[in-house]
Structure formats: C-alpha cells, structure tokens
Specification:
The chain has about 375 residues and is an alpha/beta fold. The protein is about 30% helix and about 25% strand. A hairpin with a 5-residue loop joins strand 11 and strand 12.
Length: about 375
C-alpha cells in the first residue's frame, strides 16, 4: 500500500507537496525561524518521522492520531508471547536502507531470513527438485525484466503475461512466482499496470525480519513528542492563517499541517479539506490502487514441517496460502508457521471465520 503525504500551508495551496522539503532545507541552513506551530495528522512511521525531525529543528509540533496507539499500520501482537507483526515485518535490503540505521538506534532486533533456504511442494505433497525451482525462478525474473516492453497503458499485467506466455499461465509453479513475487508486492494482476508493475526503489543486501516487534521503531520515534491519541480528524480548513484542524469536536490551530494518513482514508474522504485539494491530487487519490495482504500465524504443540526457513506450496489457485515462513527459526521457543493471502482472496478471508481459514490452510499443509 502507498501513502501520499500532504503539507498544507495557508495561502500557498499550489505548493502543498513541496513546502515541507523546502522548509526542512531552509531550517537546516538557518534561514527560517522555527517559532511556527505544526500539526501532524497521523502517528504512523511517516508522521512520526516528520514530527521527530521538525521537533529536533525547534518547531512546536503536535501529532494527532486516530488510533489508541502510535505506529499506524505497524502493529505488533504479543498475545502468544512473541512479537508477531501483523503489519510490516521485514527490512527489505539492509544496505543504505534508512530503516536499518533507525532499527539500530531503536534497539529493534532482527533475524536474517535466507530466501534460498526453501523447499517447494506441488499438489499431493510432491517435493520439487531444487534445480527446477531455481531455474524457473531465474527465468521468471528474466521475463519480468522484458515484459514491460510488451505492455500498454490500456492493458493489465495479467492480460499481457497471459497473451505473451500462455504456456506458463496455468503452470502451478509459475502461478506461485506470479503470486508471491508480484501480487504480494503490488496487487491484483488483473488491475496492475503492464507498464509500471516494476516501479519502486529497492535496496540491496540481505532481508531481515523484526524479532522484538517492528513497533519498536514507532515507539522510538515517538519519544518526547507531543502526541494526542484517539483523535479523529474530520476537517482541515487551510483557507486562512492559521490553519484550523477539527478533531473530536475540538478545533486546533497551526501555521502548518502535514497529513500522513493512509491512502484508504483519503479515498473514503474521511477528512474534509477546505478548500478542496488541487485536481491533480484528487485524481491521484482516486486512481492509485491498493493491494491487500493478510497474514496468518498458526501454532502447534509439535513440529511436523521441514527445518527450512520457507516452504512453498503450489495449488491451482493463486494468492492462497502458498508461502509459509518457519517462525520457529526466528523464535525457537514457538512451533509456528506464518502464511499469507493476497489481493482478492485476501479480501475474501476477511469475511471468513477463523475455523474456515484454518481449514483452508490445513488442506495445503496435509
């Protein structure tokens, strides 16, 4: 899922997306007075990072958060005695990744998850040869690099892939790679752009998963900040100075406002902007899609799976419990597997009972 952050300054609506970088640069150069007040809407990782930076520079900053916790979509569940991250889990590439440095400062412990430590099973429990899995994976990555040349603005990734490589479209191992390597990171293949599916910045280096909870980062950034929890912002009026922010029947005023709420909140128009946001921003909010990835953690008294980091399973249906993380490798005291559902099937799981979900997962593990 993607976020779009908006800085709203009175009398400068045309500069909503550019004021914050310019403000920070000017402050660090000592060219701007820091006696201004700023409200940050949202205490997710981006909101906290902005608030922490601005507070360090000397601004008077207040953070308004709708939930009863900081971290936004970072949510670490410790009900089983371990930190199970329902939201973000991994640092994807540790080299020059700003999260790596932040994790070290915050004391977030991490574990190297080896992507090569994997076994792949076909239906009926048939174990695939490592060489077949690896060679298919290499070919898959090669195709991802060249597929954009066959794309067009009007066609989805799925339609172009199926037309270009029809012999792979129904292959179960290829379905696994499409699901786990593309849908997982982007979204429904039938809605994904055939031209822009590979957009985004990547960092090199190994992958690491949080051990003591990704929310460690949020709590670290939140230290010393003025944060008001359970504050539902309903309207932001930036037609005059100061800007007026309406929340929980109150009105707070500030010279600047930074909005860091998730795209879904903006799509739902949960916050009224006065005046309206520029058309380009409204078009972006309406047109940008969102993926859905749901995680599931299952525990057992005894271990029955292989002593590897990952287990893949290749059913006929994509996006459905086809990738398992051996949590025991990360937390030796717990016999647990983590698995995923993506895209439309992930949304379907949100209407299912826990018992029905477990039953579906177990059909892939038996």
């Amino acid at each position: 899922m993607r976020r779009r952050n908006f800085l709203i300054k009175a009398m400068q609506s045309s500069a909503i997306t550019t004021v914050l970088p310019a403000l920070l640069t000017a402050c660090e150069a000592g060219n701007v007075k820091t006696d201004k007040s700023i409200i940050v809407v949202g205490a997710g990782i981006s909101g906290l990072a902005a608030a922490e930076k601005l507070s360090t520079l000397g601004f008077e900053v207040t953070v308004l958060e709708a939930q009863e916790k900081v971290g936004g979509r970072l949510r670490s569940n410790r009900s089983l005695g371990i930190a199970f991250d329902e939201g973000a889990s991994w640092i994807h590439g540790i080299n020059k990744n700003p999260i790596t440095e932040l994790a070290q400062k915050a004391g977030m412990q991490s574990f190297h998850t080896d992507d090569e430590d994997i076994l792949s099973y076909d239906i009926d429990g048939v174990l695939r040869k490592d060489a077949l899995f690896s060679s298919t994976e290499d070919k898959f990555y090669d195709i991802l690099e060249i597929l954009m040349k066959s794309g067009s603005p009007q066609e989805s990734f799925e339609s172009v892939f199926n037309a270009t490589y029809p012999h792979y479209a129904n292959d179960r191992l290829w379905k696994f790679f499409l699901s786990t390597y593309v849908t997982f990171d982007t979204g429904d293949l039938s809605k994904l752009s055939s031209l822009l599916y590979n957009e985004g910045e990547e960092f090199s280096g190994i992958e690491k998963i949080a051990v003591n909870g990704y929310d460690t980062l949020a709590h670290y950034l939140a230290k010393g900040l003025k944060i008001q929890l359970n504050q539902q912002v309903s309207k932001i009026n930036f037609s005059d100075n100061p800007i007026r922010v309406h929340h929980n029947g109150q009105v707070s005023e500030a010279d600047y406002v930074i909005v860091t709420v998730p795209l879904g909140v903006l799509k739902q128009k949960s916050i009224q902007f006065l005046p309206l946001l520029p058309n380009k921003k409204l078009e972006a909010i309406n047109n940008i899609g969102m993926n859905c990835v749901n995680k599931f953690l299952l525990t057992w008294e005894d271990v029955f799976w292989d002593d590897v980091q990952y287990v893949s399973y290749t059913p006929e249906i994509r996006d459905k419990f086809n990738y398992f993380v051996n949590v025991k490798k990360i937390h030796p005291a717990v016999n647990a597997l983590m698995t995923f559902a993506y895209a439309d099937y992930a949304r379907q799981t949100e209407t299912m009972t826990d018992a029905a979900i477990v039953a579906e997962i177990m059909t892939h593990l038996k």
